[in-house]
Write a structure and sequence with these properties.
Elements: H1 5-10, H2 13-22, H3 27-45, E1 48-51, H4 53-62, E2 73-77, H5 93-98, H6 107-114, E3 118-123, H7 157-164, E4 170-175, H8 181-187, E5 190-193, E6 214-219, H9 222-232, E7 262-265, H10 277-292, E8 296-299, H11 311-336, H12 347-358, H13 361-385, E9 388-392, H14 413-418, H15 426-431, E10 435-442, E11 448-454, H16 460-473
Parallel strand pairs: 2-3, 7-8, 7-9
Antiparallel strand pairs: 1-3, 4-6, 5-6, 5-10, 9-11, 10-11
Helix pairs in contact: 3-4, 7-8, 9-16, 11-12, 11-13
Length: 490
């Protein structure tokens, strides 16, 4: 294998897979190179918390499956999709102490393996994936490679930091309120939250929190996202419902120039949460770029889709989120064979779960009904008035580590601090539409700020088509953070 670690780290997953197909590199050579990068960079970032190097080497030696990403180094996030026998701690001290391991392959985990990925480890997450930062007490904070004093986002912060720094070209991620898109925004990556149930969460989960969560990856390029989506989408036995199938492979969308589209620029969040002007600047610059590419952009207030003053939308999301944490603790209790006590988990986790236990079944169903109503309103816009929505991905640039502190008298202050970050992302978990974050903007001090495109339910094809057009018009492949794989990892 020729080329430096920096050259290899700059390659996306598609390019690294081509090295294997062409015989320029073997899966084992790619694995060894990625292991060296992880060992060199992880002490600075704390992105990888479970090293699976020997398992990865063995899989590479034995020959990964002949999938589209055969031999490409990969990391799993330590919550959600997994392979049997892998550590699965979900950011909790409880599962860390008992050394819990995944009991079965999830459907998505098996599809990643069949796609040819070689798994080298698992990445850090906040406890139970709750916050948009990655600072679990069980494993300590993950740092942003663009500035280590700042968060890489969450809950897929470990995966995003690993990909952004060049440890691996792509990594598993999932999203319950922005947990793919927020870390993608904070770390200068591409992150697609697919349509609800585009990706199976089985066999253990049906539709988590009644469909709030979605699974896929964080990546360096649009073509990687399209290729992975082709490899892993589709129903599996027992799924409660499925997203409509695509008309053709997503990879075919990459070279299609979109016809002129009607795009709504949205700079006010649906819940009318105040946001930083720098993220609005990024969205407006992207609107100008889209207009230069022939699209028609007009402004629309997303707050018009929500009832009242927007507070009801936040409250209803929190009902689902709190109920979800109560249900998760009940699941942990079944695994542990004992009750979970207050000092077993972080203060915010306990506070959320206790509030979740206070909600009645009627409240929960009413929250879902409200979100479905908002989904129909936005769906109507995307059916008759617009083809896409354009928003900031986040409501603020990456905050400093420690901003989401739950150690004070009111642990819920930490989740309230998260609302600006998730101002433009959580609503599309509630409504189910697909949304993609693209690394098209930076702050004056060099921190990434993503821009989000949203399409109608089932229209990932359109998102990929326009995202690829934007990537061609304003490439980001050469934008790398200060902490990036280089000569010191060789």
């Amino acid at each position: 294998m020729t080329g430096s670690q920096t050259e290899l780290a700059r390659m996306d997953a598609t390019a690294q897979a081509e090295l294997v197909r062409s015989g320029e590199a073997s899966p084992l050579e790619l694995a060894e190179a990625a292991i060296a990068r992880i060992e060199a960079l992880n002490p600075q970032l704390n992105a990888v918390i479970h090293e699976l190097f020997e398992e990865g080497r063995e899989a590479a030696r034995n020959g990964p499956p002949e999938g589209p990403f055969r031999g490409v180094p990969f990391l799993f996030k330590d919550i959600g999709a997994a392979l049997a026998g892998q550590p699965l701690h979900m950011g909790t001290r409880l599962f860390k102490e008992i050394g819990f391991r995944a009991p079965v392959d999830t459907y998505l985990g098996a599809r990643f393996r069949e796609a040819g990925f070689v798994t080298l480890g698992k990445t850090n997450v906040p406890e139970l994936g709750i916050l948009p930062t990655t600072e679990p007490k069980a494993y300590g904070p993950t740092r942003n490679p663009w500035n280590t004093e700042h968060t890489p986002g969450g809950s897929s912060g470990g995966s995003a930091a690993a990909v952004a720094s060049g440890m691996v070209p792509i990594a598993h991620a999932n999203d319950g309120g922005g947990s793919i898109r927020i870390p993608a925004s904070h770390c200068g990556l591409v992150g697609l939250k697919p349509s609800r149930q585009r990706i199976s969460e089985g066999p253990i989960i049906g539709d988590n929190m009644s469909g709030l969560t979605a699974e896929l990856v964080v990546a360096r390029s649009v073509r990687d996202v399209a290729g992975v989506l082709d490899a892993v989408h589709g129903p599996a036995p027992g799924d409660p419902y499925v997203a409509p199938p695509p008309a053709r492979p997503y990879l075919e969308e990459l070279e299609v120039d979109p016809e002129p589209l009607r795009i709504a620029l949205v700079t006010r969040s649906a819940a009318d949460i105040p946001v930083d002007p720098v993220v609005i600047e990024g969205a407006r610059e992207t609107a100008e770029l889209l207009e230069s590419l022939g699209h028609k952009v007009s402004e629309r207030a997303l707050v018009d889709a929500a009832p009242g003053d927007g507070s009801e939308l936040v409250e209803s999301f929190m009902i689902r989120w709190e109920a979800g944490q109560a249900a998760t603790l009940a699941t942990l209790e079944r695994v542990l064979g004992r009750e979970v006590a207050e000092d077993d988990v972080e203060p915010l986790t306990w506070a959320l779960a206790q509030k979740g236990l206070e909600h009645g079944a009627g409240e929960y169903l009413n929250a879902i009904a409200l979100h479905q109503l908002v989904g129909r309103v936005i769906g109507g816009w995307l059916e008759s008035e617009f083809d896409l929505l354009l928003t900031p991905t986040v409501g603020e640039p990456p905050p400093r580590l420690g901003a989401y502190d739950d150690s004070g008298p009111d642990p819920m202050a930490a989740i309230e601090r998260a609302w600006p970050t998730a101002a433009f992302s959580g609503i599309f978990n509630a409504t189910g539409q697909p949304a993609i974050s693209l690394p098209l903007h930076q702050t004056e001090d060099g921190l990434p700020v993503g821009v989000q495109l949203v399409a109608a339910l089932g229209r990932e094809d359109l998102l990929i088509r326009v995202a690829a057009q934007l990537e061609r018009a304003r490439p980001w492949a050469d934008q790398t953070p200060p902490i990036f794989a280089g000569s010191d990892t060789e």
